[in-house]
Amino acid sequence: MLTIENLHVSIEDKQILKGINLEVKAGEVHAIMGPNGSGKSTLSHILAGKPGYTVTQGSITYLGKDLLEMDPEIRAREGVFLAFQYPVEIPGVSNIYLLKAALNAIRKHHGLDEADAMDFLKIIKQKTALVEMDQEFLYRSVNQGFSGGEKKRNEILQMAVLEPKLCILDETDSGLDIDALKVVANGVNSLRSPERSFVMITHYQRLLDYIKPDYVHVLADGKIVRSGGPELALELEEKGYSWLEEQAVA
Amino acid sequence: MSTSAQQIENLIGQEYKQGFVTDLETESFAPGLNEDVVRRLSAIKNEPAFMLEYRLKALRHWMTMKTPEWAFVKFNPIDYQTISYYSAPKKKEDGPKSLDEVDPELLETYKKLGIPLDEQERLAGIAVDAVFDSVSVATTFKGKLKEAGVIFCPMSEALQEYPELVEQYLGSVVPHTDNFFAALNAAVFSDGSFVYIPKGVRCPMELSTYFRINAANTGQFERTLIIADEDSHVSYLEGCTAPMRDENQLHAAVVELIALENAEIKYSTVQNWYPGDKDGKGGIYNFVTKRADCRGDNSKVSWTQVETGSAITWKYPSCILTGKNSIGEFYSVALTNNYQQADTGTKMIHIGENTRSTIISKGISAGKAQNTYRGLVKVLKGAKNARNYTQCDSLLVGDKCGAHTFPYIEVKQPSAQVEHEATTSKISEDQLFFCQQRGLSPEDAVSMIVNGFCKEVFKELPMEFAVEAQALLGISLEGSVG
Fold it and tell me: What residue numbers bound the domain in which A57 lies?
């Protein structure tokens, strides 16, 4: 589904990613861990097409296409979804309005009819239950006045409604208490399927207790310094990142 | 980062869709303004003597006045002698008696604008007066309104049929000495709409006037007068468009509303005059005086405006709250793009006891435009327990535009409560990226954010207008991201 080869990325002449290689197949869940400033968020931004970064070398292939050639909204319509670390607030625009506009933009892209009001409500009802969200949230402005946990749940709701193929979760666990973390993890787990892949960026092992990854990669100083199975995350929890960083330098 | 800023830039600024010209035989005055022109204008319309006297008085006063310069807008001085003060589609003999006799070319024009004048086609529930350049060309549903006792007709007709009503009320809210443009209008106004709602009547349908400037080098000076007698209710809508021309054109209207005891007037405007091209060439100068007098106790006037057009907008729909417990409201969305300039707001003058006013203003600036809110809240000594709430929000799209707020508050009554809230925000690159990441194009994202910003005002508009206003905002913003 996703192939990243020798990816080098800089921001205003500062090199952030220094040769990333990653292969994500359909149905797989990959966790990307690493210390602060290792380039984890940059990787998620690059995948989603956030402006401001320069790719100096390498390529990203998504479903056989050159991902870097696509505008952000085209990537989204083709099934790339980023759950933001800091979801923005949009005053005056209701959640339900955004969801409907987004869903229809994606449907239109695939040559489908727009969802009519009845169908849409049916979809929404089902998905809000999935993230244990009250219906009244739908009519509130996007993320305005939401708690940290509500914002993250809202991201998962959007993911559930838009049914992307590649889901990138950027530190979705940060700022969540244990109950909220469980709700978010349940939401994500229920969306796992053989056709859908996940790239989870996280700082802590904690999230991986609830969402079991197939692979764990450790990013340090712009490179993947170690890859392994779920046991790698436990090892990291025990030893911290420093032993790997030292290895990377050595 | 600059890519996104660039995108916002390009998103604002789409083509104006009502810019076509209708080819019609017209009857126009040669450019120029003097007493003789005013006399001829009055004679063509066969006006009663009081009207001519009023016009001449206004012209003489106007000649002593200077163009106001306090507004935050810039434009070259206007040479009033190069403007033609009358242009009308040539009439076939006596002029149309019914819609069937209206020039098909004119009907076609309005159809193209989305305003079918055919009563069958019209959405039920809205009566339209169509003003083309200097004259009213058609009014629909007159018969049905008459059954309810409602008078809805062109001002020129009101001067023939109901001169005493016109004489009693015209100029009673906006006197001919009020300001430069109001004085000019009083001297040369050619047509407009006249509405009278009798005592105890709730107007059975929405009334609307659709203004169209077509001829070149012509000013449009319309005059609207709405009188809501005791215990009556009316909702009135106004729409405006003009062809694309390289020269600036002047539109100086005066609107007067009078609400007597327990009466309510709701006045909504969607102003979409030609705004000029993306380099700031051409466009309408929209210098308008709109004022309501809540004369009776418990009366209420509500202004709602969506201003997306015009090169320059200079407009302050106001309420004089004379009657006890009277209510004034002002809901405004003003969007400026490219080189458009808007200096708009309201005046709420509290005279009576327990008078209340609400001001909600949403200014959106994009491109290189300047957008100014200017508002006065004045509470006079007698206005015990007067209350005002003002909320004034500005939204910037891109980084080359400006938003300005000039609130004036004068309170002479200690029991009054006046609140003012203001915010300025910018469509952030993060918001834009977030929406794109959910599959929306940058254009749709900006339009959605702007519509969200304006929601409090749009909900005040009648249904059909709200839909039109939203679509219009989308169009006016197009090209601001790309």
Answer: 2-249
